Amino acid sequence: MATQRSENPTELKEEKIAIIGSGLIGRSWAMLFASGGYLVSLFDTDSRQVRDAMTNIQQQLTMLSERGLGRGSLSADIQFSRIKASTSLLEAVNNAVYIQECVPERKELKRAVLLEIDAAMTSTAILASSTSAMMPSLLSDHLTNKDRFIVAHPINPPFYVPVVEIVPAPWTADHVTTTTSEIMDAIAQVPVVFFKEVDGFSVGRIQFAILSVAYDLIKNDICDVDAIEVAMTEGLGMWYAFYGPFEVEHLNADGFLDLCNKYGEAVYRVQKTFAAPEKMEGPTAERMREQLELFCPLDKLQKKRQWRDERLAALSRLVRDLDKEEATPSGDN
Ligand SMILES: NC(=O)c1ccc[n+]([C@@H]2O[C@H](COP(=O)([O-])OP(=O)(O)OC[C@H]3O[C@@H](n4cnc5c(N)ncnc54)[C@H](O)[C@@H]3O)[C@@H](O)[C@H]2O)c1
What we know:
With 333 residues, the chain is α/β, with parallel strands linked by helices. It has helices spanning 24-35, 47-66, 76-81, 89-93, 107-120, 136-140, 174-186, 203-219, 225-240, 245-252, 256-271, 282-295, 301-327, and strands at residues 16-20, 39-43, 83-85, 96-101, 126-129, 149-154, 163-168, 190-193. An 8-stranded mixed β-sheet has the order 3-2-1-4-5-6-7-8, sandwiched between helices. Helix 1 (24-35) links the parallel strand 1 (16-20) and strand 2 (39-43). Residues 20-26, 43-46, 49, 102-105, 113, 130-132, 153-154, 156 line the site of nicotinamide-adenine-dinucleotide.
């Protein structure tokens, strides 16, 4: 079930996108929208942050282009020229067709900023939040345009991990969900659309379930951090770059129902041994910290993040090349 990514030349678009908050996520969104040919207005209450963001975006676009890792077919210079720093929220939001809120993950701050945008947005614009873990209904019940509010949650680092979780509030209009998805397609991000909201969305819920099971194994001295890391990178991770957990099982037998018949009982037996979730703290968390810092000391985090981005970029290039190969007439999949 691989997702085919478009290789068509990128068209310059007249539509403007507003990004509110120019931190880690805001600047990634700005690059993504510019690479898709949109005009981008970037606003932050901290003017130094916007200046830093513009410098950092230019450097990143140049570096990506030099290494052949850029998105779309526009040059780094053209992409950068699509992004403008705005001096006010009003100016940024004015005439924007889509607004992506990227302010810190604090409920009252987000609600206040969303209300400000709500008052300034045009009557057809879409207002999306990047929130990692807040339910759309919690963020938007006070908005006049709440039918045009939605969560579009990227995964860090968004430039290399293309999935975006599209989560509507109970009052989000259907066309808003559809259009948000189409906009993600247009910037070569891959939307996963939810029918309704749920705490943690999908990526968070699955990652947190893994953390819970793995933490329990370490707490009970079944294995150490390294064993879990290897089980994921050399095992589950090999599958998951190409297909998800259901297709894993579908392929591991003669279809999903055959798998359920053959192994369903064993799966259920093991699942029944899962412990109730616990907060990760105390001696177990301390032991995990020690083990983790052995292979990644805190002063090497930045270097390791760069390594991560390079690996993810190489993986996404491989997936793109394999997709292209498969799409050629001689491909038989
Ligand atoms: N960092 C991640 O891994 C990640 C991943 C996915 C989603 N998110 C979500 O994205 C959002 C932004 O996260 P981040 O990591 O970019 O945070 P960040 O702290 O790096 O950036 C937030 C920016 O918002 C600005 N800001 C604060 N108040 C503002 C206001 N009133 N108006 C405009 N700008 C304002 C800050 O000056 C700062 O530049 C959060 O909701 C976060 O949960 C983060």
